[in-house]
Amino acid sequence: IKPSPLYPVGALCTSTPPHGPIWVRATLHQRTGEDTFILRDSTGQVTLFLPTDELMALDLYQGMEILVFGTLDISLVKPEKNELYADRIYLPTRDR
């Protein structure tokens, strides 16, 4: 997988966020609901929304670094309320 471009989380919650499909690598900071997490990196945090049963069935846990391919739901009034809707999530490879 060669994500391009790879956006920092902080870029997602600005008044001029990226549009279209985006890639983000960050850490799951906290589960906030059945289908939502706070996704964080050194530049900021954003709400990650898992819109499908397939994504909600993944073994996701706090502290896990993931790679997300998705789209941004943009709040025109409060950019800090933007949400990342996951289309695909790639989990780190585990040593066997």
Structural class: mainly beta
Mind telling me the C-alpha Rg?
13 Å
Q: Give start-end ranges of low-pLDDT stretches.
A: none
Span between termini: 20 Å
- Lateral strand order in the biggest sheet: 2-3-4-6-5
Tally of helical runs: 1
Mean pLDDT comes to 91
Provide the helix percentage.
under 10%
**Quaternary organisation:** single chain
The SSE string, one letter per element, is EEEEHEE
Q: Outline the biggest β-sheet.
A: 5 strands, mixed, barrel
Overall body shape:
globular
Instruction: Tell me the number of strands.
Output: 6
Strand content: 35-45%
Keywords:
single chain; mainly beta; 6 strands; 5-stranded mixed barrel
Please provide a brief summary of the model.
With 96 residues, the chain is mostly beta strands. The protein contains one helix and six strands.
